[in-house]
User: What shape does this take?
Amino acid sequence: IWDVVQKEMVEATGFVNKPGKYLFFPGMKVSDLIFASGSLKEFADRSFANIHRKLIDENGQLALKYIAVDLSKILNGDKTADIELAPKDK
Assistant: This one.
């Protein structure tokens, strides 16, 4: 069935050990993507990150939304800071 169904992906870029595209699953959080991408590199800034999310605006145009996340809270286990990802998030 995976050959027929289009797979939704998310992407990890920047200072992660294994940057790339990863299979999205419902309920996936920022911490899941960090784990999938092999964690942050030693010299990575652990204070914040941005999620780039593609949306369709009220005019039917593609828009890009930037969502700031507090990585230090996520890495310390704060579930309220660990937001859910959407398909195609980067």
Notes: The mean pLDDT is 93. Helices lie at 30-36, 71-75. The longest helix spans residues 30-36. The beta strands are 9-12, 20-23, 49-56, 62-69.
